[in-house]
Amino acid sequence: MNHKIQSLSGYINEYQESVDQPEKFWNGIAESFHWQKPWDNVLSWESEGPNVKWFENGKLNLTENIFERYLFTHANKTAILWEPNDPNEEGRKISYLELYEMTCQFSNAMTSQGVMKGDRVVIYMPMIPEAAVAMLACARIGAVHSVVFAGFSSSALADRINDCEAKMVLTSDGNFRGSKNIPVKALVDEALEKTTCVEKVIVCKRTKIKVTMVEGRDVWWHDVIKNEAIEHKATVLDSEDLLFILYTSGSTGKPKGVVHSTGGYMVYTYYSFLNVFQYKQNDVFWCTADIGWITGHSYIIYGPLLAGGTTVMFEGIPTFPHPGRFWEIIDKYKVNQFYTAPTAIRALQAKGLEPLEPYKLDSLKVIGSVGEPINEEAWHWYHDNIGKGNCPLVDTWWQTETGGIMISPLAGITPNKPAHASLPLPGIQPIIVDAEGNELKGNNVEGNLCIKFPWPSMIRTTYGDHKRFKETYFTTYPGMYFTGDGVKRDHDGYLRILGRVDDVMNVSGHRMGTAEVENAINEHPNVIESAVVGFPHEIKGQGIYAYVICDLKGLSGEALIDEIKNTVRKIIGPIAKPDVVQIVSGLPKTRSGKIMRRILRKVASKDISNLGDTSTLLNPEVVDQIIKGAKN
Ligand code: WTA
User: Fold this and answer.
1) How far apart are CA 389 and CA 381, in angstroms?
2) Could you say which of 430, 451, 472 is where a domain stops?
3) What is the pLDDT of residue 497?
4) Is the model's pLDDT at 2 over the cut of 90?
5) How many domains is the chain partitioned into structurally?
6) Which of 417, 434, 451 is the last residue of a domain?
7) How many angstroms does the Cα of residue 371 sit away from the middle of ligand 1?
8) Which of 101, 305, 508, 518 could cross-link 540 (Cys pair, CB 3.0–4.6 Å)?
9) Is residue 369, in this structure, part of any structural domain at all?
10) Rounded to whole angstroms, what are the CA distances from 593 to 22, 531, 547, 616?
11) 532 lines ligand 1 (CB under 6 A)
12) Residue with CA closest to ligand 1 atom 24
């Protein structure tokens, strides 16, 4: 099967076809997969619901399209190249046949432990091959996985377990991250004190730290697989059966469970992977994300494996034990496509060129960026020093909700333009609108980014709350998917993503709702009220700035600030810890009691020359106090 676009004119034609006849276009791509029963309808779309179905009534199992489909030709090909945290420990090389057998065996084990089709299974694991096996085995038996980033706190884990009513948790004893050995299982134990739905916990041994096993609930991974067969007949699923739930932050409330279903996600992650990265058989692909994020789902696991590719999985962090770690791994495995986040690029750029010196990086053909806007300086540094000026750089824009890359250059095909995500993939119809929803046509326009036509890997609902799904994505501009991002179309018609236009921050490429951080801060007993905004941060893209009204109750301001930061770390995790906490006597509010965030954002960004109209404020005097006490 060959769905790879070969040239710019090929792209232009394919794009046009996909807009003129979307169903015919996706039908052609879906047909190359193995389906147990073909679909009746390519697309059924009803924007009022909104309800979307792709490949309606088609029956399949996604993992058959990774394993059975390739086994005759690919059995001994490497599926996963695993690199441990510590370079002195040996890596693992897992072939398609081995991964297949591990997946089958673990599918049997999960079934023996009582998991059935449709049950939710939370995966809270380090970046080890067993985590990939866990996801694939869920897909194999039709259980719905929900991977929770292992850097989240036990209370964030408990919230997610409760929201999806998980029956099982898959975890490990510990997690090697840089110089740390994080007690993962202990965090699961803490989380399970706040939940009642989990019946079984399967624990994979990784760091050998001591753990407590609860009788009847907790079992070891190596014990449960021991007597299981390495053959397993894949469960036949409907195209619209749930594949996974992944929690992500929005502008209000708690993180929501983004739901993805099977057939459409499979077709789109495969197609986008192949085309954006121009992946060729025998290439080695490395995406540095964690499987706890959508990037890890789609471009460490599903996309590369559906394409029969070789994917690198790295347990550690970019700077341990030295700041050349990424470059060392690229040379070691002769990585051809390297995909990382601007925050990592900026952090490594700050280390200078010396860490690069021992490495050749001559295997690289394509380099990629994802997760946040990449500034031009970082773009050039990455392009010149890592790509050596001759690797196309794909700046890929997409979201947890979109399932796969939506706007991006196709490597070596679309002319490169620094900091521009550039052009939509075939099948993707972006539209720029103004605040009233009028389409801004033509070039040199700036507005809000929506997608006006469904695509196969789009979010189906927010788990357990279809109303919230509709309100979040389809109400601002009725009938269209609203992304929450601002965008500019330049004089050449190339798109440049400008960042979020809602109350979602992007901190080191991690999505974080301001309300979520405020709720965590407000848990501290001395806090009366708080307001959180993002501000430009040299390495992280955005930092977190919190304004807090509190009652010191005898504590010093500094001590309380430390406690507040720790409260957030405990409730959400280290990634949400505010960079700056400023204690204030009041927050600027409108007469209707709404916090004027615009002013807070400007103060946090040191941009106070033009604060705009403050005359409508209830308490204009606090603005001066806040400016005087600003801590940046
Ligand atoms: C931002 C990550 C600019 C954007 C795959 C989006 C980007 C949010 C880019 C989704 C990019 C992602 N350029 N901004 N190339 N890629 N974003 O759900 O604001 O973790 O809405 O998905 O990241 O983050 P999420």
Assistant:
1) 9
2) 451
3) 97
4) no
5) 2
6) 451
7) 4
8) 508
9) yes
10) 47, 13, 16, 11
11) no
12) 399
Q: Which domain holds residue 599?
A: 505-629
Tell whether 495 is covered by a domain: no
Report which of 412, 281, 336 is spatially closest to residue 1, judged by C-alpha positions. 281
List the CATH number of the domain containing 618: 3.30.300.30
The model's pTM is: 0.97
Q: What is the pLDDT of residues 490-546, one digit of tens each?
A: 999 999 999 999 999 999 999 999 999 999 999 999 999 999 999 999 999 999 999
Cα of 248 from ligand 1 centre, angstroms: 12
Q: How far apart are CA 284 and CA 338, in angstroms?
A: 9
312 and 433 part of one domain: yes
443 and 511 belong to one structural domain: no
Residues 428 and 339 in one domain: yes
Q: Report the DSSP beta bridge partners of residue 431.
A: 450
Is 451 touching ligand 1 by the criterion CB < 6 Å?
Answer: no
The answer to whether residue 619 is domain-embedded is yes
**Looking at the structure, do residues 146 and 45 belong to the same domain, yes or no?**
yes
Which CATH number is 383's domain given? 3.40.50.12780
The rounded Å distance from CA 359 to ligand 1 centre is 30
Q: How far is the CA of 92 from the centre of ligand 1 (A)?
A: 31
| Token digits of residue 545 | 């700035």
Q: Which residue owns the Cα nearest ligand 1 atom 13?
A: 373
Place of tokens 């400016």: 627
* Residue located nearest, by CA, to atom 12 of ligand 1: 371
Residue 190 in any domain: the answer is yes
Residues 395 and 309 in one domain: yes
Q: What is the pLDDT of residues 163-219, one digit of tens each?
A: 999 999 999 999 999 999 999 999 999 999 999 999 999 999 999 999 999 999 999
Q: Which of 147, 245, 246, 497 to mutate to test the pocket of ligand 1 (most atoms within 8 A of CB)?
A: 497
Q: Give the dihedral of Cα atoms 314, 318, 324, 329; nearest 10 deg.
A: 10
354 and 216 together in one domain: yes
Q: What is the pLDDT of residues 331-362, one digit of tens each?
A: 999 999 999 999 999 999 999 999 999 999 99
Residues 101 and 242 both lie in one domain: yes
Number of CB atoms found within 10 A of residue 134's CB: 30
The whole-number pLDDT of residue 411 equals: 98
- Cα(9) to ligand 1 centroid in Å equals 28
> What single DSSP character describes residue 595?
B
DSSP assigned state of 397: B
Measured in Å, residue 42 CA sits from the centre of ligand 1 at 28
Apex 264 CA angle, 263 and 270, nearest 5: 95
Ligand 1 site, residue 497, Cβ cutoff 6 A: yes
